[in-house]
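Researcher: Please translate sequence to structure tokens.
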Amino acid sequence: MKILVCISRTPDTTAKIAFTDNNTKFATEGVQWIINPYDEWYALVRAIELKEKDPSTVLHLITVGTSDTEPIIRKALALGGDEAFRVNSDQEDPFYIASQLAYIAKNEGYDLILTGKETIDHNGSSIGGMLAEILDFNYVSLAVKLEIEALKATINREVEGGEEILTSSLPIVVSCQKGMAEARIPNMRGIMAARTKSLKVSDPIDAECLTKTSVFSLPPAKAGVRLIPAETPELLVKLLREEAKVI
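Model: Translation complete:
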């Protein structure tokens, strides 16, 4: 079996968010970058588990980004990938990215492609579905469990009120979320091996960008805590009804 895991780079959750150029660009200066947690903890780790179960499995990683994304893809290789691809582009449009991923995937002939359910910066949750459509693969989103037996996938996914169990032939694209696997930390052997693993860099193909960022805005600042004396419960009720609007 041949598996491809899509890796994206996102700001650390503790990074201070700011914008430049009249709030049209994300300010990257001083930002700590990490592997998107849904890609790392769930998609990649589940792929590694499948490879451990069947050592003949080939596990590749791919990202779309410029050279400054290479530390992220190297960390992913340290966790357990065999080799990686980087498409040299700084575009962030989901369709453009999906087109680049699909071009590589089509030429390599993968049986299973795993993505995180979304990135923690844009929360778009769209690339997995676009990738499957371009490749004409089956697609399952929000997966919490994945098993492969006899080239058939069994997937558990969250639905309102419970779980849905699906089966599909390969090839398939699956987007993964919490429950799919348990996070791992690269060990020293993996870190050393990642330095010499193949990282192939390619130029992007021509593809259309369907979206454009007009402006970014930060959420409104949180209001301060308001303390209500215990002897005036009627004031609390009034505020809940008129200001908080929870009653």
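Researcher: Any highlights?
Model: The chain has a mean pLDDT of 92.
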